[in-house]
Holo-[acyl-carrier-protein] synthase
Amino acid sequence: MITGIGMDIIELERIAGSIKRNSRFPDRILTSGEKEQFLTLGNDHRRTEFLAGRFAAKEAFAKACGQGIGSISFQDIEVIRNQNGAPELRVNGYEHANLFVSITHSRDYAAAQVVIEVRN
């Protein structure tokens, strides 16, 4: 049964500005595994897209749970790649649920949608 749906959209320019103002901003948003991927990306634009997508996915998850970031930490939510390269969520305390995530980018925005399905 689906128990939550959340979406989020974020401006890439806002994320780029946050990175410029505070070099530790990615550390606040990304888990250590995500940070490893982030650091391998070849240019600032791709890093901004990556960080914005993870930010949107984590916000969308919090909304799907019916709570905001603060009740749950960015560090409790991790976006990983499955064997095909598609994003998947790992979240502490949600091992009992199927979590679905979709992340997209445009020239100016990153957006994500999350669906939480509780297994019977």
Summary: Strands lie at 2-11, 77-81, 87-91, 97-105, 109-118.
